Amino acid sequence: MNKLEEFPYQRILVLGLAKSGKAAAKLLHRSDKKVRVNDYKATPADPDVRELEQLGIEVVTGGHPLEVLDDIDLIVKNPGIPYHNPIVQEAESRSIPIITEIELASRLVKHDVIGITGSNGKTTTTTLIFQMLEESHCPAQIAGNIGNVATEVAQSMTPNETMVLELSSFQLLGIETFQPKVAVLLNIFEAHLDYHKTMDHYMGAKANIFKNQNEADYLVYNLEDPHVCRMVENAASTKVPFSTKQKVTHGAWCDESYVYFKKERIIAKQDIVLVGQHNLENILAAISAAKLGGATTEGIHQVLTTFSGVKHRLQFVKNIKDRSFYNDSKATNILATSKALSAFDKPTILLAGGLDRGNDFDDLAPYLTNVKAVVLFGETAPKLEKIAQSVGIETIEFVDNVKHATQKAYQLSEPNDVILLSPACASWDQYKTFEERGDMFVEAVHTLE
Length: 449
Description:
Layout: E1 11-15, H1 18-30, E2 34-39, H2 47-54, E3 58-61, E4 74-77, H3 86-93, E5 98-99, H4 101-108, E6 113-117, H5 122-135, E7 140-144, H6 150-155, E8 162-166, H7 169-172, E9 182-185, H8 193-196, H9 199-207, E10 218-222, H10 226-232, E11 238-243, E12 252-254, E13 258-261, E14 264-268, H11 277-292, H12 297-304, E15 315-320, E16 323-327, H13 334-342, E17 348-352, E18 371-376, H14 381-390, E19 395-398, H15 402-412, E20 418-421, H16 434-445
Parallel strand pairs: 1-2, 1-4, 2-3, 4-5, 6-8, 6-9, 7-8, 9-10, 10-11, 11-12, 16-20, 17-18, 17-20, 18-19
Antiparallel strand pairs: 12-13, 13-14, 15-16
């Protein structure tokens, strides 16, 4: 297994356990570093804690005592821990560098990294790129925010494998030398402001994906997103735009009938299985990155004629008595739900709600044209009710959870309806993850008759 080489830090605090923290701690230990782990919620009896301690790693649980920073050269921080956390602020006051495990993983990879970020579409685009490389017989591994811990994947990679890496803004805040061969910037929309506080800070985090690139590297970016275009103006990398609205001979684009990369016709639009205008943007980004990573047109074509979506992202679940059920639980913000709604021209029953991050939902209103009813749950239900009323939706129901929302939506539905879980909110008011929320929906659909 690969180990860290020429890594200048010796005494390292892993802040936050979870999957990425555990993997980082084990990697650092194997790389002969002195490792300490600190997790607020963990207890000494937790299996992960006991496993690390059996390896000889010090683990401090139940709080964040400032003493854990003593004699520390570097912190590997769990991405979910905010920078206003007192222990993080104390570390910054002591000028201790803070990274995420993405930085560690990048130092293990011997071949190219393709990094993907944006407010929406990351998982779909990452999966498309990976499958396009696989179908083209280009060795690759997929990791990052998609669910596979990057340091775990990187330890077992061979020197000729490309890492396809989904990256959140939280992860990108903690990099030093990370330099993907191909960086993909899909879009920017107001998101995670409870963490970042300002749009400028959020955009700055996303821009880290290309900050270490040079002209030998590639930056695939959305030509139709004004935020993105402003962000990439001074990038040192070779820019490769994609556009659904105009011809770009040095990137990916489409006309009414076909999709192209530069001057090459890739596929007829009618042959693409994945639905939705927003997914066309993801497809153009994926084609660009895959081509730059060595994928063949044949491999790309094969993927686009068979790939119908990733789990929890406009995932078709089932058709029951001519009602189509779609799981879009990964839609944790307004833009994602807007794009999901735009994918359908049939009467739609929308299941929405979740964690209240303080934003309103006015931007959702123009996309509710085909919505005949809404079923609401979670903290934001009253705000969503207000928007639904403002556009004239008469059928508005409140329920306790996603299971009950699914049952209620089915009761309200008629043949030819779409029943869409697309919450427009994070899940944490009721569920540990959006996956848990989506799984409840899928399970509830399969109990219907």
